[in-house]
Amino acid sequence: MAKWLIKSEPSECGIDDFARDPEGFIPWDGVRNYQARNFLAQMAEGDEVFLYHSSCKHIGIAGIVRVVRAAYPDPLQFDPESHYHDPKSTRDKPRWQAVDMQFVSRLPRLISLDRLKSLPALAELPLVRHGSRLSVMPVSEAEWQAILALPNG
Predict the structure, then answer these.
(1) How far apart are the C-alpha atoms of 36 and 139, rounded to whole Å?
(2) Distance in angstroms (rounded) separating the CA atoms of residues 119 and 99
(3) Kind plus residue range of the DSSP H or E element containing 45
(4) 130 class by beta-carbon count within 10 Å (0-12 exposed, 13-18 middle, 19+ buried)
(5) pLDDT for residue 57
């Protein structure tokens, strides 16, 4: 199974939203970047995902979620009332993907971006590279293990 990292503003969808209903799922939709969309399309049921809080006071990895439904056409692209509507997308040729995710765990303590940047094992992770703003990215098994090995108490 693959590993991933997704970024979200906690005011829109954070680890607390997932933790409120640990048996439920949240559709990960509204992604409108082609590279991030392509990564969503590669996600498979069972893949584990770090949830990274961005654009907030305390940024960093807040918890882990799991893909419970692989990529499917993002329904928001077809909704003219949605901020994420795409008039060029059709049901026959959808342009955007969504996946459903479910709560796994909240980290005991947020792992800050500064802490992540200090790890040599993460030098190639797009999150820590200058200028990268991707909201969905793959995480190698070695990177995943390096993050999990951090003291988090």
Answers:
(1) 13
(2) 30
(3) none
(4) exposed
(5) 85
Amino acid at site 74: D
Question: What is the tens place of the pLDDT at every residue in 112-140?
Answer: 999 999 999 999 999 998 777 889 999 99
Residues 13/49, Cβ–Cβ less than 8 Å: no
Q: What is the pLDDT of residue 153?
A: 47
* Rounded CA separation 29/52 (Å): 16
Which tokens hold the place of 132?
């990268």
Give the span between the Cα atoms of 5 and 8, in whole angstroms. Answer: 10
What are the Cα distances from residue 1, in Å, to 48, 76, 92, 130? 8, 28, 29, 28
Answering whether pTM is above 0.70, one says yes
Query: In residues, how long is the chain?
Result: 153
